[in-house]
Specification:
It is a single chain. This protein is of the alpha/beta class and about 220 residues long. The chain has one domain: 3-Layer(aba) Sandwich (Rossmann fold), CATH 3.40.50. The chain is about 40% helix and about 10% strand. The protein contains 7 helices and 5 strands. α1 links the parallel β1 and β2. The longest helix has 16 residues. It starts with 5 loop residues before the first strand and ends with a helix.
Length: about 220
Amino acid sequence: MAKFDTIVLLSGGLDSAVILAEAVSEGKKVFALSFDYCQRHRQELNFAKRLTHHYGVKHLILKIDPHTFGQSCLVTHEKVPKNRNSEEIIASGINSTYVPARNTLFLAYAIGQAELHSASEILYGPNALDKHCFPDCDAEYVQAVQGVINCAMKKTVPILKAPLIEMDKKQIVDRALELDVPIEKTLSCYDPLPSGSHCGQCDACVIREEALCQCSHMS
């Protein structure tokens, strides 16, 4: 079985693309892991494939039954919240875009892959804004999962890292530009158009566009 230094949870969005680029720039041998759970925005998987091709890393897409995740609007026909600014998004707290236990399940698979490939670390991509909207995106959660890893692993005990957890979206865009990340090969949208383009109105699109505009004005 091939050995890898790092398991990266890769959604195909900007945040995980930055984490992937950073790991590759540091000379790490990376194994990228993505998930198909019939998500509304599953076009993101095509972007994940493009990113792994761009960086020349091994990529695995695992399928998960969407019924695992309850009634999130990302796996049902419920409308995705749109046309809110960043302040309204933060104030809304946990909303219908939250997919219950998704990160926990994703990380469980990542732990298994780390054991299989003797990886020393697992990277996933919550940022500073996410903790206001998703309970599995703060430092306490990371520490708790690390505790599970420490108890559960036998052969390899990887370190769980969330490199962007203290960074806002503008800082992440800045880092993407520093790393020369192909931003056009990323999709950060909850409700993309049939063409695979960003809808421009969902929370993910609004946060992304605000950050891109801020960086553009300062350049």
